[in-house]
UniProtKB/TrEMBL annotation:
It comes from Aureibaculum algae. This is TonB C-terminal domain-containing protein. The lineage of its organism: Bacteria, Pseudomonadati, Bacteroidota, Flavobacteriia, Flavobacteriales. It comes from the Bacteria. Residues 192-258 form the TonB C-terminal domain. GO terms for biological process: transmembrane transport. SUPFAM superfamilies: Histone H3 K4-specific methyltransferase SET7/9 N-terminal domain.
Length: 281
C-alpha cells in the first residue's frame, strides 16, 4: 500500500474571501498533489482555495481547482484534461466547469471538448439537471432538452434548416467584436480572472431594436445585469430577421463563452458566441 505523505505548513494565512485564519496543507499521493487550506480552529475542515495537480517529473499540470467554504464546495470548480501532447502551462484545457452551492451542484455546468469547443451547457439545481440543456458538435447545436418538462426541444427550435428565415445580424460589427469593445464589467468578486458561459435570449424587433433581454448562468447577479446592459446597448444596431423576404420580429437564443481578466489598469475581455438560434413557440 502506498503511503500518504502529508506536509502541513504551519504559517497562518488570512483568507480574503472568507475572512478566517487558515493553514496551508500539501498532500501527496498516487502521483497527485493536493494543495488546500484548513481552518486554524478546525484542521479537518477545508476552507479556501483547493488545487489538485499531477506530481510528474516533467510537469505539474492542473487536474482540478475550486474553493471550499467550511468543508463545502462553493462557487465554480474546474476539472482539466490531461495533456495529449507537449505540455504547455499557458494552454490548460478545461473539461468540466461546475458550479456548487453548499456542496451541491447548483448553477451553471459546461462540458468542453479537448479543442476548447463547447460540448454541453445547462444548469443544476440541488444536484439534479434543471431547465434547458444544450448539446453542441463542431460549434453547432445538435440537441436541446428541457429537464423540467422532460421535453425534447431539438426538433422545435432548429428551424433554420427549413430555410425560411434569414438570421438577424449586427449592422457593423459581429456580436463577438461588439462585446469585446463595449463590455466593461466591474470586478465585484476581486478576482484576477473569470471564465464562464451564459445563455442569452432576447427579442430582435423588425425595426432592429432589442427587447426582453434575459441572461442566465453568470457566476453572480451583478455580472448578469452587466451582460444585459451591454446587450441592450445594441438597440437599433441590428439588421432584422427576414422571412419570405419580409422583415420580422424574432426571439433568439445564443450561448456566450467569456473570459475576463482584470489588471491594475483596466481589464481585458475575450468572447466567443455560439450558434444563434431563432426560437419558434
Amino acid at each position: 500500500m502506498k503511503k500518504k505523505l502529508l506536509i502541513i505548513l504551519c504559517t497562518l494565512t488570512f483568507s480574503p474571501i472568507f475572512s478566517q485564519k487558515t493553514i496551508k496543507v500539501t498532500s501527496s499521493r498516487d502521483q497527485k498533489i493536493e494543495t488546500y487550506y484548513v481552518l486554524d480552529t478546525n484542521r479537518k475542515m477545508k476552507h479556501g482555495k483547493y488545487l489538485l495537480t499531477w506530481d510528474a517529473k516533467l510537469y505539474k499540470s492542473i487536474i482540478e481547482e475550486g474553493t471550499y467554504d467550511n468543508d463545502n464546495k462553493e462557487g465554480v470548480w474546474k476539472a482539466y484534461y490531461p495533456f495529449e501532447g507537449k505540455y504547455d502551462k499557458n494552454d490548460t484545457r478545461v473539461h468540466y466547469l461546475t458550479t456548487y452551492k453548499d456542496n451541491k451542484k447548483n448553477g451553471l455546468f459546461v462540458e468542453f471538448g479537448y479543442g476548447k469547443d463547447t460540448v454541453e451547457v445547462g444548469e443544476f439545481l440541488a444536484n439534479k439537471r434543471s431547465g434547458i440543456w444544450r448539446k453542441y458538435k463542431n460549434g453547432k447545436l445538435v440537441g436541446k432538452y428541457n429537464f423540467d418538462t422532460n421535453d425534447n426541444l431539438a426538433d422545435k427550435i432548429d428551424i433554420k434548416k427549413q430555410g425560411s428565415y434569414k438570421l438577424p445580424t449586427l449592422i457593423k460589427d459581429n456580436l463577438n467584436l461588439y462585446l469585446i469593445n463595449n463590455f466593461h464589467p466591474i470586478n465585484h468578486k476581486k478576482v484576477k480572472r473569470l471564465f464562464g458561459i451564459v445563455d442569452v435570449t432576447m427579442t430582435i424587433e423588425k425595426n432592429g431594436s432589442v427587447e426582453n433581454v434575459i441572461v442566465k448562468g453568470a457566476e453572480y447577479p451583478e455580472l448578469e445585469k452587466e451582460f444585459i446592459s451591454v446587450l441592450k446597448s445594441t438597440y437599433g444596431l441590428w439588421n432584422p430577421a427576414l422571412k419570405n423576404a419580409e422583415q420580422v420580429t424574432v426571439d433568439i437564443a445564443i450561448p456566450i463563452k467569456f473570459l475576463i481578466e482584470w489588471k491594475k489598469k483596466g481589464h481585458r475581455v475575450g468572447v466567443q458566441c455560439g450558434t444563434l438560434e431563432i426560437i419558434e413557440y
